[in-house]
Amino acid sequence: MKFGGTSVADAERLKRAAKRIVEKREAGHRVVAVLSARGKETDRLIADAFEVSPSPDPREMDMLLSTGERVSCALCAMAINDLGHRAISLTGSQAGIVTDTSHTKARILDVRADRITSALDDDNIVLVAGFQGVSTAKDVTTLGRGGSDTTAVALAAAVGADVCEIYTDVAGVFSADPRIVPDARKLNVVSFDEMLEMSASGAGVLQLRSVEYARNHGVRIHCRSSFDDQPGTIVVSEEDTVENPLITAVTHSTGEARVTLLGLPDHPGIAGRVTTTLAEANVNIDMIIQNEPVTADAKADMSFTIPREDLDTAKDALAALAAEHGIEIRTDESMGKVSIVGAGMKSHPGVAAKVFTTLGEHEINIEMISTSPIRISCVVPGDKVPDAVRALHSAFELSGPDTIRPEQPFGEFA
Ligand code: ASP
Ligand code: MG
């Protein structure tokens, strides 16, 4: 069972989570629960760091950020003990989560779950601080924003759990962000492949790495509300999905920046150098477009999108290469992206045409396009994103009966 930040934000909610955990235990299950930091605690800690340093040391950042989820776990253990059950809280390191050494974005290499299993054997409920581990160099690491999902999935795989339940502040995975599309539909089932594309293109409900990990290890995810008992969304392998709708969801993100490199020498190896430089700076490139030179001077242009928070890092990283080759770097900080995802589009022509026509009819200019077999993404001006999401959601008729209740908060969807 994993509880997100909103689900443990205050004492009342934390006690409610404790009660839910205890109910599971009383129903005869052995329970490992992963908790996120409370409310906006991680944001606060990041802000604290930037108050004392313009570029906080990554190792120390991880020491700092890992405290948020520890607080949640210790408090929850206290609440569970008061309910007459035994609970122990563990840090990621104590729980045996071993990662690589890339601070603030570490990857899990191994889970040595023997301490968890022996605590379970001793009839404990085990609470594990999400989003963190210990590196092969014995330093505390964190797994990137939203990383508690990955902790939960990794532990579920390591202990051979029946299911990994992700308790969140939305009722499940939706056909679009309900804050933008109020009649978005809750999806009962979604395939790993679709969920991967959705997480990668902006659906914040599950961290991308957690879905990857679940697919690779065959972990069944049930994403559901921590505020009621309704079933949420089950993420399963493609063979297990009964229906294959043409389009499953519209996702979006507004945190994109575009970098354009003008005047790249048009010879083999340049694209490799640009992308290697960015990879070494740990900047994740999303879409890439390169135009072949049309003029005689044999200079090419390349544009790519990256997370906006990585823009300064990217510019710094590319500075030397740009100077060496006389490349001009232009940036645009306010790009957004809208995507449609659906396993059914693999075998249906005309989906792209419908996407582009719909956006055109709404006077939304498409700046870049990328596709996968089950996704079409368009980069559009950041302020057009909500319009684009609504237009596509309605063009593909994604609304349905299973709409959400208006009183529900939507914090973790974004
Ligand atoms: N607390 C971390 C974050 O805010 C990890 C998580 O909540 O999953 O990103
Ligand atoms: Mg989350």
TrEMBL record:
It comes from the Bacteria. Substrate binds at residues 42, 69. Its EC number is 2.7.2.4. Belongs to the aspartokinase family. GO terms for cellular component: cytosol. This is Aspartokinase. Tetramer consisting of 2 isoforms Alpha (catalytic and regulation) and of a homodimer of 2 isoforms Beta (regulation). It catalyses: L-aspartate + ATP = 4-phospho-L-aspartate + ADP.
